[in-house]
């Protein structure tokens, strides 16, 4: 496996920053723009939510995000495949 080129890692980092900005703006449609139709949301103490429509259940009108923290962010891949994993803590 070849490591990802630096420019690919930087592009993924930029998308990650835009995602966090969209979360903080309170605009779930902007967040969903980054997702595939079969996106998986792993919510603590709940079943996995599959798809954008199911993820819409996470959105509560008028709920303001106070803070978002990320930890253990990893960007991996090889060739045409790349992925980012991270642990998120969101405080409403």
Overview features:
3 helices, single chain, two-stranded antiparallel sheet, 92 residues, alpha+beta
CA radius of gyration is: 14 Å
Strand order of the largest sheet: 1-2
**Which spans of ≥5 residues are poorly predicted at pLDDT below 50?**
none
**Distance separating the two termini:** 40 Å
Oligomer: single chain
What portion of residues belong to β-strands? 25-35%
The coarse overall form would be globular
Give average pLDDT, whole number: 83
Number of strands: 4
Short description:
The chain has 92 residues and is α+β, with helices and mostly antiparallel strands.
Structure description:
- With 92 residues, the chain is α+β, with helices and mostly antiparallel strands.
- Helix content is 32%, strand content 29%.
- It has helices at residues 6-25, 28-32, 52-55, and strands spanning 40-41, 49-50, 67-78, 81-91.
- The strands form two sheets. A two-stranded antiparallel sheet has the order 1-2. A two-stranded antiparallel sheet has the order 3-4.
- The mean pLDDT is 83.
Give the helix/strand layout.
Blueprint (H helix, E strand, L loop, with lengths): L5 H20 L2 H5 L7 E2 L7 E2 L1 H4 L11 E12 L2 E11 L1
Antiparallel strand pairs: 1-2, 3-4
């Amino acid at each position: 496996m070849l490591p990802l080129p630096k420019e690919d890692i930087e592009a993924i980092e930029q998308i990650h920053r835009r995602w966090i900005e969209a979360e903080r703006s309170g605009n779930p449609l902007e967040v969903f723009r980054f997702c595939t139709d079969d996106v998986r949301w792993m919510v603590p103490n709940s079943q996995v939510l599959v798809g954008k429509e199911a993820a819409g259940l996470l959105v509560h009108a008028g709920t303001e995000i106070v803070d978002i923290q990320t930890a253990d962010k990893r960007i991996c891949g090889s060739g045409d495949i790349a992925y980012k994993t991270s642990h998120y803590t969101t405080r409403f």
